[in-house]
Amino acid sequence: MKKTNYHIHTNYCDGQNSMEDMILSAISRNFNSIGISSHAPLDYQNDWTMPQDKLSQYIEELTLQKNKYRTKIQINSGLEIDYYMHTKQISKSAIRVLKNLDYWIGSIHCLGVMSNGEVAYIDDTEENFKEGIEQLYHGNVQKAVCNYYESIGDMAVKFHPDIIGHIDLIKKNNSHQQFFNENAEWYQKAWRGALIKIKQSGSILEINTGGAFRYGIRCLYPSLDILKAAIQLQIPLTIDTDAHCIQAVDFMMDSILDELKFLNVDTVMYYNGKKWISQKI
Ligand SMILES: [Zn+2]
Ligand SMILES: [Zn+2]
Which of 77, 243, 246, 254 has the highest local Cβ count within 10 Å? Predict the structure, then answer.
């Protein structure tokens, strides 16, 4: 089978290594097809996405690298684009750049904008997450989490991203179940609702090992319950490492493949430079 990974960051955003270093790392690990997916510029001041004035350079460099290494690896131009829960939109600059991309990942990292103008994030510190819930949801965690999954589903049906990024990122700051009980019926209902909309949208669900690399196995996205439900719904899957450094380019890929086989999954999605096709594992 073709070895693939469509979620790779670079130092255009918060990745540690250059685009070329990430590509060379993928070549040395025998990947056949990869996608570079730096964080698209955000509408808000931040230190982790690509700045707006770097976007055209990013697209140009992708084209150059694609050609430079085309006999060794198939490189696809992507971006990880944020969907904003509070406006139900992606940024206008992201919409404009879509035509220059082979594919994109739709993700939600922002909880909303707080009264001081700062963004509260889902996956920043626990304090920042807590503050966001207090300010934007009057401390009602269940409401925030349900809104998150509803937004994931709405993003899928409204914008049809090729890939839905780390579907249950909302659990990142919940390692001791201190914000909500992941076994609660309402929680299961919330993510199931998102899965049903993803199925309707035709988007691919990624199994994302980036959180596991950085924060431990609890941050493997999605959790097993969600993965099993996605398999039951026959949602197409792909394995991505959300790599922010060269060491993470194929992190846990083999074990995830084994797990998928154990769960009787026999195909994953692969981008052949023109379209997504399923390939046997
Ligand atoms: Zn992300
Ligand atoms: Zn990412």
Answer: 243
pLDDT for residue 152: 98
Closest CA to 85 of 16, 154, 19: 154
Backbone angles phi and psi of 252, in degrees to 5: 65, 10
Which residue reads 């074990």 in tokens?
255
Ligand 2 centroid–CA 43 distance in Å is 17
pLDDT of residue 6: 98
The residue-averaged pLDDT of 27-46 equals 97
Q: How far apart are CA 119 and CA 92, in angstroms?
A: 18
Burial 14-26 (b: 16+ CB within 10 A, else e): ebebebebbbbbb
From the CA of 10, how far away is ligand 2's center (Å)? Answer: 10
The confidence band for 164, taking pLDDT boundaries of 50, 70 and 90, is very high
Q: What is the pLDDT confidence band of residue 105, given thresholds at 50, 70 and 90?
A: very high
Query: Which residues have CB atoms below 5 A from the ion given as ligand 1?
Result: 107, 165
With b for 16 or more beta-carbon neighbours within 10 A and e for fewer, the 255-273 pattern comes to: ebbebbeeeebeebbbbee
Q: What's the CATH class of domain 4-107+141-280?
A: alpha beta
In order of 34, 60, 155, the CA distances from 178 in angstroms are 37, 44, 27
Dihedral Cα 141, 144, 148, 150, nearest 10 deg: 110
**Residue 101: C-alpha distances to residues 24, 76, 132, 236 (Å):** 21, 8, 32, 21
Which residue from 17, 15, 7 is spatially nearest to 79, judged by alpha carbons? 7
> Is the pTM for the entire model greater than 0.85?
yes
Q: What's the pLDDT at 161?
A: 98
